[in-house]
Design goal:
Blueprint lengths: L1 E5 L10 H7 L6 H12 L2 E5 L3 E6 L6 H13 L4 E7 L3 E6 L2 H17 L5 E5 L10 H7 L1 H4 L5 H12 L4 E5 L6 E6 L8 H7 L10 H17 L3 E11 L3 E14 L7 E8 L11
Parallel strand pairs: 3-4
Antiparallel strand pairs: 1-2, 2-3, 4-5, 6-9, 7-8, 7-11, 9-10, 10-11
Helix pairs in contact: 3-4
Length: about 280
């Protein structure tokens, strides 16, 4: 039996699985890591049993390039049967007599998942009047205009760090393609994933240990760039971490633009963890 591991960009990692395990600081090895990569990183896995194949994927997360590589390969493959293992809220299994039938089913699952609502990530914008006026955060938001000039950047960064401590991140927006990437981390943000952190500076912000969460974060940061002012949001998210598995995170997220005289737009942000936040109580 051989295993082919395809990442979300369509690259084959079959010969370098150890390298990618280390990059994501994963405690898993072998088959456990393959399942983790499929369920969390948008990979697809193909087990070759000679005249049969097993395909593993998560329809809601699989990358577009990975999806194309996989379905194009299946339409040319020769096999007596294909077992499709796909991850929703749990693993489901289906048997197909031809690779073409399996490819058609994968296309159906992916189309359906991309129109479904993502309920793991809930958020609510926080208005200025909800922030205590004497708190560092309330002071910052109410007096934003005084700190928004490039000449006040150091003061702004110090105010943010007094609110967030070392749980902060600075991201940049590429002028060419609009993609948002990591530029700097505070030492306490993603501190349990130091190997991943060491590779993340310069990478797109969606490439986080839980790729579904990363894509959602990328969309919310994109909205913050468009706002051109501070954005405070309460977040109630279900995230899958390599060491902890599926876990609930509740926090108040603060995002502020960093004005610069030159270079790409920057955003400084981070979480204030608060388990009193509960956006699921009245969620429908």
């Amino acid at each position: 039996m051989s295993v082919r591991l395809i990442d979300d960009q369509g690259q084959d990692w079959s010969a370098n699985s150890r390298q990618i395990r280390e990059a994501f600081d994963s405690p898993y090895s072998g088959g456990e890591f393959v399942d983790y990569a499929v369920a969390n990183l948008g990979f697809a896995a193909v087990n070759d049993y000679g005249s049969s194949y097993q395909i593993r994927l998560r329809p809601s997360l699989i990358g577009e390039k990975c999806f194309r590589v996989l379905t194009e390969w299946l339409r040319l493959a020769k096999s007596e049967r294909v077992v499709l293992s796909w991850y929703g809220t749990d693993w489901s299994y289906e048997l197909f007599r031809t690779p073409v039938a399996a490819a058609s089913r994968i296309e159906q699952l992916v189309r359906s998942s991309r129109t479904s609502k993502q309920e793991d990530f809930l958020s609510r914008k926080v208005s200025t009047h909800e922030l205590h006026p004497t708190s560092p955060l309330g002071h910052l938001i109410r007096n934003w205009s005084a700190y928004s000039a490039p000449s006040s950047r150091d003061t702004l960064v110090n105010l943010m760090r007094s609110t967030l401590g070392e749980r902060y991140v600075i991201v940049r927006k590429n002028d060419n393609d609009g993609r948002i990437s990591f530029q700097q981390f505070g030492r306490d943000l993603f501190s349990k994933y130091e190997t991943w952190r060491s590779c993340a500076v310069g990478a797109p912000i969606e490439e986080q240990p839980d790729r579904v969460y990363g894509r959602w974060i990328a969309s919310t940061y994109g909205e913050a760039f468009e706002s051109e002012g501070p954005v405070v949001t309460d977040v109630d998210a279900i995230v899958r971490w390599p060491h902890a598995g599926r876990a609930r995170m509740r926090y108040r997220r603060v995002l502020v633009p960093l004005r610069t005289t030159s270079g790409p737009p920057l955003l400084l942000g981070g979480p204030i963890f608060d388990n009193r936040i509960d956006l699921r109580l009245n969620a429908t």
